[in-house]
Write a structure and sequence with these properties.
Layout: H1 9-28, E1 47-52, E2 55-68, H2 80-89, E3 96-107, E4 112-115, H3 130-136, E5 146-148, H4 154-157, E6 161-162, E7 165-166, E8 172-176, H5 177-185, H6 194-203, E9 211-214, E10 219-221, E11 224-228, E12 237-243, E13 246-250, H7 260-263, H8 275-292, E14 295-297, E15 306-312, E16 315-320
Parallel strand pairs: 4-5, 5-8, 8-9, 13-14
Antiparallel strand pairs: 1-2, 2-3, 3-4, 6-7, 10-11, 11-12, 12-13, 14-15, 15-16
The structure holds zinc ion (ZN).
Length: about 325
């Protein structure tokens, strides 16, 4: 294959000519100084599109939040020093962290399906960008046929409305029945989840009249099926996506951090509404995706939020996808 990269004699002559003319320009402008390029600030990739069989999948970074952590969000049942030392040993800042939000569009060729609606615009200065970025990605809100809500937390339902306006005017909605009932009823919810319920009542409950409700395993559209993943939220659903023999699991918030939640699945996560069920669900899903080498998209995995889970000793680790989906 080396010959493909060898320049021809003609190329060499062209190259020589270019070098000569650059030298000539430099010679005619003695002492010319080019200003240093300005600093442009951080640039983040925020749109990523790949193929899964005959489906086209687009991940969009709705945004991110930075704050204190990983402890006590992760390792909620562990001493702070233990979690901080572990973070450091993994090359992470011991007391500061970032959490990304990644939405997934699946174009089946017949329908455009959006998983979760992102944060409400204005909830955070660094999030709530989905509605703008989907235009950049080449879609219009009117083209979204189905919005699937994995669970009722504000970073997943806040973007269903923009003020008093429905964000996706032509969409039908798919909810987990268990999760919808839980957040709508609002019985015995933790003090820390009062705001979650307020957002839910305002953003998600009005969609009920255009919604279908899945109980257990069920079909969203041909090729997309729900799998119960209760724990992080009482009725959270993951979704198995398959086209032309290629498979992918959207595990929603089964793991909320690519190191802390995957390498230490038994550590409690403060965001989990049922912490022990969260642990059991993580281990069940990690076993499933590592045994099957099933690719994963996860809402809080580092962008583009596409990867695999491998067994590592008695635990697991996140392996970001490389070019597997480009071939
Ligand atoms: Zn979330």
């Amino acid at each position: 294959m080396a010959h493909e990269f060898s320049p021809t004699r003609r190329d060499m002559l062209k190259l020589a000519g270019t070098t000569a003319s650059v030298a000539a320009i430099a010679a005619t402008a003695p002492g010319a100084v080019y200003a240093a390029a300005p600093m442009l600030g951080v640039s983040r990739p925020s749109i990523y599109r790949f193929k899964l069989g005959n489906f086209e999948i687009t991940n969009i970074l709705d945004g991110y939040v930075q704050g204190n952590g990983p402890h006590p969000i992760f390792g909620n049942n562990q001493p702070a020093e233990v979690v901080q030392a572990y973070a450091k040993s993994q090359g992470l800042h011991p007391t500061k962290m970032e959490n990304p939000y990644v939405n997934t569009f699946v174009n089946t060729g017949k329908e455009l399906v959006l998983f979760d609606a992102g944060n409400a615009k204005g909830r955070l200065p660094t999030a709530g960008k989905l509605a703008e970025l989907l235009l950049v990605a080449g879609y219009k809100p009117e083209q979204v046929d189905v919005v699937v809500i994995t669970h009722g937390h504000p970073d997943h339902v806040g973007g269903l409305m923009e003020g008093d306006k429905v964000t996706y005017p032509n969409a039908r909605y798919v909810f987990s029945e268990v999760d919808f009932d839980y957040w709508k009823k609002g019985e015995n919810i933790a003090e820390t989840r009062k705001v979650t319920r307020e957002v839910y009542m305002k953003s998600a409950v009005p969609m009920a009249e255009k919604a279908t409700f899945l109980k257990g395993e069920g079909e969203v559209v041909p090729g997309i099926r729900s799998i119960p993943a209760y724990g992080h939220s009482p009725g959270m659903m993951a979704f198995h996506i398959e086209s032309d023999g290629q498979r992918l699991l959207n595990w929603a918030d089964v793991a909320n951090h690519y190191i802390m939640a995957i390498q230490q699945p038994e550590w409690h996560v403060s965001f989990d509404d049922d912490k022990e069920m969260g642990v059991a669900t993580r281990k069940r899903f990690f076993d499933m995706v590592s045994n099957d080498r099933l690719a994963v998209v996860g809402y809080h995995m580092p962008f583009p939020a596409l990867g695999f889970v491998e067994k590592a000793g008695t635990s697991y680790r996140w392996v970001p996808a490389g070019y597997q989906f480009n071939l």
